[in-house]
Amino acid sequence: MGRTASVRPGGHGDVPGSRPDLATVLRTGPFHLALRTALAARGLALHRVQQHLAQRGVHVGVTSLSYWQQGRRRPERPESLRAVRALEEVLELPAHSLTRLLGPRRGQPTAPPAPTVAVRPYRDLIAPAAAVDQLLAALPGPRDTGLHTVTHIERIRLGPDRRLLRRDSQHAVRAHRDGVDRYLAIHQGDPGCEVAEVRVRATENCRVGRVRRDQASQLVLAELLLDRRLRTGETHLLGYGFDDAPGCGPSTEYVRGFHSGTGQYVLQVSFHPRALPVRCHRFALSAPGVEPYESEELTLDGQHGVHLVAGGLGPCLLGIRWAWE
Questions:
Q1: What order do you get walking across the sheet with 262-270 strand by strand?
Q2: Which domains are assigned to the chain?
Q3: What is the pTM of this model?
């Protein structure tokens, strides 16, 4: 799902005497540095953290907490992962900000097994929710298509009139149940977009099935039929895109909603050389209309674009916003 997105992998060296910015290290990791930075920022001693966890019914030793923040051990057991989730609350951190830095367990496949795939309803990620429900109701079949993202590379292109021209997706997915044969793609145009004229393209290993549109909310729901049925654990690579329609006003953002767990996501926004924004920034939020829980300024590259790379994401929204003046 998208509209007119991500923790950037990278590293911070453990430099003695230095304290990295908390917001930055929560995006980049590694886990032990993020935990240590959060503890220092909140000014909590480990024994106090242990007490706060115990009040929440989570019991973990001070030694374990110390080893975690030093990188000498890694939380992996179910009770340890529960403690990490409670730590996010104790340290007043965004939900999943520490757990997502852990990545897959050692020796485990990158893609989560079927029982652990977190799925959030589409309506939680797109506004207005009622319009999403109506479009999905008009398209028979399960709302959870049984797929989650392994890798998704998405390219957004804007024209000289500051309008979104097209979006292209190269999408590797994995099935978490048997018999999967379709993917649902949702596009939301900018205000004024004539959704009847939005073109849906199937470019690789799929074909366009049924398409439903809602002019009032500028929503287009497209069914992409895979060229084979997938069994649990099988992967599939598909390519598709949307060409926006005339009539839209200047575009100021692109948002990607993730309704289930995501392995790797890359978003590139390319601007026309005669229409460059004065500033861009990336953001992440938990639901439409709420305040972002992370934000960072982005700098245009030599090809007049910006990009994001995100990994190990749970259900959320990611995006890039830009200002023209």
A1: 199-204, 235-243, 164-175, 147-158, 262-270, 305-313
A2: 22-102 (1.10.260), 114-323 (2.60.40)
A3: 0.62
